[in-house]
Amino acid sequence: MRSSTLASFLRPEGFERPHPAAVLREGSLVTEAGRFALRAVGDARTRRSTPYAARASSRVSDPVILVPGFMAGDGTLSLMHRALRAQGFRTYRSHIHANIGCTLNAAAQLESRLESIVIRRGTRVQIVGHSLGGMLARGLAVRRPDLVSGIVTLGSPMLAPAAHHISLTASLDVLVRLSRAGVPGLMSEECVAGSCARQSFDESRSPVPLGVGFTAIYSRRDGIVDWRACVDPLAVPVEVTASHVGMAVDPRVIDHVTTALRRQALGSALEVDRSETA
Q1: How far is the C-alpha of 190 from the C-alpha of 166, rounded, in Å?
Q2: In this model, does residue 56 exceed pLDDT 60?
Q3: Which of 40, 55, 72, 202 is deepest in the core (most CB within 10 A)?
Q4: pTM
Q5: How confident is residue 110, by pLDDT bands cut at 50, 70 and 90?
Q6: 203 — phi, psi (to 5°)?
Q7: 153, 216 in Cβ contact below 8 A?
């Protein structure tokens, strides 16, 4: 069944909504958060038993910005921030308090944030985006490769943004109705069915420029989006076993994020070195 709000092109043929009961898989978030807590306790014990001089992690050159998913804010990625910092990454928040506004406006806000980080650090930025945040990251990588050295997407349905659980469609419908009623700062009909939606969708399927790393992390247990829509053919695919929401906190997923960021940072450094020595 198609939504009366979402444009049909946002769910191309071959992609489907998860079954209504699939959302029950998201209950594993409790286990995934518990797994993070256990890892944190173990890491704290290791730090206490390690001499101070040996504790420092090697600093990764590229700064990293984390972008939350639909209806979420920076706080939902706070545990990932903490874990990445412990691994030597310099992380930044997106300054998105609730990802419920126009996607083009959110992308413009994020682009401005990237520009400020690049000016401050003198190097391009890697983006880790959860769900909708990953779609924003991919669009920015296409438009501003001068700012973006790599992206890591987590459960981001770039190939079919509308291949999501019916509960998300209901949430979008509410936002559109409130926008029609005059409430500012919310997704409007243009964002889900008009030119705004088309531009965002086209950018999320455009070729990623050379020199920009791209890793797409997905889970067949995802109860919110069709996992097949998250496997971009231009990305390095990484399959995990986690819920959609749990990808932001499961330490096993964060380990994959860390690996991808280090690999992409190395690729970015080699690219710079080749251009300087050419």
Answers
A1: 20
A2: no
A3: 72
A4: 0.91
A5: very high
A6: -65, -35
A7: yes
d(CA 128, CA 265): 13
Q: How far apart are CA 22 and CA 117, in angstroms?
A: 39
With contact defined as beta carbons under 8 Å apart, do 66 and 93 qualify? yes
pLDDT of 203-240, one tens digit each?
Answer: 888 999 999 999 999 999 999 999 999 999 999 999 99
Q: Given this model, what pLDDT does residue 230 score? A: 98
Half-sphere exposure of 19 (CA within 13 A, CB side): 6
CA 64/CA 61 separation, integer angstroms: 9
Spatial contact of 85 and 65, defined as CB atoms under 8 Å apart: no
Residue 200 near residue 142 (C-beta atoms within 8 A) = no
Q: Token pair for residue 45? A: 């014990």
* Residue 71, phi-psi category: left (phi > 0), alpha (psi -120 to 50), beta (remainder): left
pLDDT of residue 275: 47
Q: Which of 242, 236, 237 is nearest to 220 (CA)?
A: 242
Buried/exposed code over 185-214 (b: 16+ C-beta within 10 A; e: otherwise): ebbbbbbbbeebbeebbebbbeebeebbbb
Phi, psi angles (nearest 5°) of residue 146:
-70, -15
